[in-house]
Amino acid sequence: MLTQRLRQLERDGLIVRTYHPEVPPRVEYEISDFGRSLAPLFAHLADWAGINLDRIEQARHDYDAKAAR
């Protein structure tokens, strides 16, 4: 699953994969410049999550309470 996700991110141009033909083989991944352009979006999402954390926790509690019945 992780390999599939990394390949999709590489295909989308969000990460760069570097293969090192050594024994054992080694692969490195790094975020691309295009991927870095998402940083403001993730910062905004993190701010939103921080502001709404209490509501998220309450929703989880309510859901789990219903599921336990």
TrEMBL record:
Keywords: DNA-binding, Transcription, Transcription regulation. Coiled coil: none annotated. The keyword Transcription regulation applies. This is HTH hxlR-type domain-containing protein. InterPro entries: HTH_HxlR, WH-like_DNA-bd_sf, WH_DNA-bd_sf. Pfam families: HxlR (PF01638). It comes from Phytohabitans aurantiacus. Residues 1-57 form the HTH hxlR-type domain. Gene3D superfamilies: Winged helix-like DNA-binding domain superfamily/Winged helix DNA-binding domain (1.10.10.10). The keyword Transcription applies.
